[in-house]
């Protein structure tokens, strides 16, 4: 099956998918309304920042081109993946404005195309969006009938920014919401040829697939929040260590180790909004998604609780260095970043904030509107600090040594390590007050508290 593909939307996922599919030996046409993105791809340059994207584009430039014209792309390919923004509104719903525009143009192209064409929506949407919000546009603009003249699927990807190409080509599974057997079967065969691993394909109705996408992300965030709760518990029990606890929990196959790492909250462009979307979906059914709402509340309240717990250590007049402004390691993305939130909140309390991030410094500078000083050198940043907060487990932060936290004229530096990545290096260092969030640092106080608790209980 010598398929040709068009990718409509050249953002981080779309551009990476285009490059990845070309890498697997297929002809790919990228489409975007942004002329600069189209020109960059045609010049074998990455239109967005993503790991290995430009390298993959250059290595496969003979099979990859871009255009502003959806009509051209649809007529010259067999399958179109639509990966356009679906931004959240205040209710938590996902807007279909960009998708509608794309589907209208695709419909017009299908109207003059003689061959069967499979349209695959990849953007995250709410249940019912594809069939009832977008399919009518395809049929209206094309004058043709879905199932007979063209195909339609909903097939989101499960990727992480910073590793999109690898994740796309090596998924745990592929998810296909199909209008009918023909469209779903065609897409499954495409995935069999595209993917590098032998991942199973889960085929289902379009609505089941739409729900699966937001449910999966919501479940993962619930797991993260549960681990964060355990990290808080472990700070109050003698020799408490969340890594020991979650390592044991994750050994149970019903739970697993992935995302079970007590630390700071989650962020990024997907996780925070999917719980709100699930809650909104429940509301439209006359139901309540209490678990999703609670998970979202716990995550959003976590930074404030951490600031409150540290109020005796961090005082106005101090300088706090935040290491990590992206929402995760190896990313330029600062959307819903916990580091950004901490910087803002502490700055509002009269704390001077400096920061460093290996990739996201420029992006964060625009987000924070010069509220803080962002350094391009980690050593310069640390030389300003009375207190250091490590907010992401980036490799460059894992490589730091105790001597990196020495500042002339400062007897003792406070290091708050949300991920415990420097525990072995910094614990018991005479010039460092080291606070590994998720581990007990005061066994005596916690032992006495537990002893009193059980003594009082025995007296009842």
**Name of the CATH architecture of the largest domain:** 3-Layer(aba) Sandwich
CATH class of the largest domain equals Alpha Beta
Give me the Rg, rounded: 25 Å
Which regions are unreliable across 5 or more consecutive residues at pLDDT < 50? none
Number of domains: 2
Helix fraction, binned, reads: 40-55%
Total strands: the figure is 14
Tell me the strand order in the biggest sheet: 3-2-1-4-5-6-7-8
CATH superfamily of the largest domain: NAD(P)-binding Rossmann-like Domain
By DSSP (H or I, 4+ residues per run), the number of helices equals 18
Strand content: 5-15%
- The rounded distance between the terminal residues' Cα atoms is 76 Å
CATH topology of the largest domain: Rossmann fold
EC number: 1.1.1.22
GO molecular function: oxidoreductase activity
Protein name: UDP-glucose 6-dehydrogenase
Pathway: Nucleotide-sugar biosynthesis; UDP-alpha-D-glucuronate biosynthesis; UDP-alpha-D-glucuronate from UDP-alpha-D-glucose: step 1/1
Task: Give a description of the structure.
It is built from 18 helices and 14 strands. With 460 residues, it is α/β, with parallel strands linked by helices. The protein folds into two domains: 4-199, Rossmann fold (3-Layer(aba) Sandwich); 310-437, NAD(P)-binding Rossmann-like Domain (Rossmann fold, 3-Layer(aba) Sandwich), CATH 3.40.50. The protein has an eight-stranded mixed sheet, sandwiched between helices. Strands 11-10-9-12-13-14 form a six-stranded parallel sheet. Helix 1 packs parallel to helix 3 and helix 5 (97-112) packs parallel to helix 6. The longest helix has 29 residues, at 206-234. It starts with a strand and ends with a helix.
């Amino acid at each position: 099956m010598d398929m040709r593909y068009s990718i409509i939307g050249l953002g981080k996922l779309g551009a990476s998918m285009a490059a990845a599919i070309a890498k697997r030996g297929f002809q790919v046409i990228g489409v975007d309304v942004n002329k600069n993105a189209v020109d960059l791809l045609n010049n074998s340059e990455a239109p967005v920042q993503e790991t290995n994207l430009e390298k993959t584009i250059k290595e496969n430039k003979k099979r990859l081109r871009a255009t502003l014209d959806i009509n051209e792309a649809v007529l010259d390919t067999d399958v179109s993946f639509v990966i356009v923004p679906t931004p959240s509104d205040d209710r938590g719903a996902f807007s279909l404005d960009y998708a509608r525009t794309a589907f209208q143009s695709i419909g017009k192209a299908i109207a003059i195309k003689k061959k069967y064409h499979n349209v695959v929506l990849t953007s995250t949407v709410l249940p019912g969006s594809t069939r009832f919000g977008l399919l009518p546009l395809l049929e209206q603009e094309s004058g043709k009938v879905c199932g007979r003249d063209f195909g339609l699927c909903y097939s989101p990807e499960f990727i992480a920014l910073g590793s999109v190409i690898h994740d796309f080509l090596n998924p745990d599974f592929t998810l296909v919401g199909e209008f009918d057997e023909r469209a779903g079967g065609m897409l499954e065969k495409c995935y069999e040829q595209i993917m590098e691993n032998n991942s199973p394909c889960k085929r289902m109705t379009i609505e089941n697939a739409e729900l699966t996408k937001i449910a999966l992300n919501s479940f993962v965030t619930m797991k993260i929040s549960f681990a964060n709760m355990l990290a808080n518990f472990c700070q109050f029990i003698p020799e408490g260590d969340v890594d020991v606890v979650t390592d044991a929990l994750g050994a149970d196959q019903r739970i697993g180790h992935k995302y079970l790492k007590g630390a700071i909250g989650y962020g990024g462009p997907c996780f925070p909004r999917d719980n709100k979307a699930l809650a909104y979906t429940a509301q439209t059914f006359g139901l309540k998604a209490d678990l999703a709402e609670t998970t979202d509340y716990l995550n959003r309240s976590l930074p404030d609780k951490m600031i409150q717990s540290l109020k005796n250590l961090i005082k106005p007049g101090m300088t706090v260095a935040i290491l990590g402004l992206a929402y995760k390691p190896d990313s330029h993305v600062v959307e819903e970043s916990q580091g950004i939130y901490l910087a803002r909140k502490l700055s509002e309390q009269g704390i001077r904030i400096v920061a460093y991030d290996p990739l996201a410094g420029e992006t964060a500078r625009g987000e924070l509107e010069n509220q803080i000083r962002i350094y391009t050198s980690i050593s310069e940043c640390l030389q300003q600090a009375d207190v250091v907060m490590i907010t992401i487990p980036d490799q460059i932060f894992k490589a730091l040594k105790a001597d990196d936290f020495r500042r002339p004229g400062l007897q003792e530096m406070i290091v708050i390590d949300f991920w415990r990545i420097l525990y072995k290096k910094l614990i018991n260092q005479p010039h460092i007050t080291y606070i590994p969030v998720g581990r007990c640092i005061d066994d005596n106080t916690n032992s006495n508290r537990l002893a009193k608790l059980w003594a009082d209980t025995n007296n009842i």
